[in-house]
Amino acid sequence: MKKEPDHCINERITAPVVRVVGDGLEPTIMDTRDALKKAYDMGLDLVEISPNAQPPVCKIIDYQKFNYELKKKQKEMKAKSSKVVIKEIRLSPQTDDHDFEFKLNHAIRFLKEGNKVKVDIFFKGRSILYKEQGEAQLLKFANALLEYGKPEQMPKLEGKRMLMLISPKK
User: Are the C-beta atoms of 123 and 162 separated by less than 8 Å?
Assistant: First the structure.
């Protein structure tokens, strides 16, 4: 099954008059039939580039080559865009200094790799009464990471969890 082309080409162009552009051509407004004849004489295709313009803009080019260039550009754009990865680190309000340092080293490694770090404190049972302790723990964590990343969102309590997001410095 053949896929429908993305652009109107040759006989599929329905506008009676078009603006014709191309390599080595002066932009001119002409009848669609004349533009098609000109494209066929050059051994190329008439491709509708901007159908919403008044009159529609058509380009005389090799459609296969045009499609190839378009796909190549899209592939480059996709390669340049980066995916954001969020790594999660969980603490408790009473985390010991050694465990704190251990998790801090992990966070530093994640930030150096360019990942975001989501630090959360989970309050079990009645430990929810010590929200201030949890917030202090998160702020201490953020201060220790200041040279590697900056807090994107300050500590926020959601149910029994307090969250904070830290993004890497560029």
Answer: yes
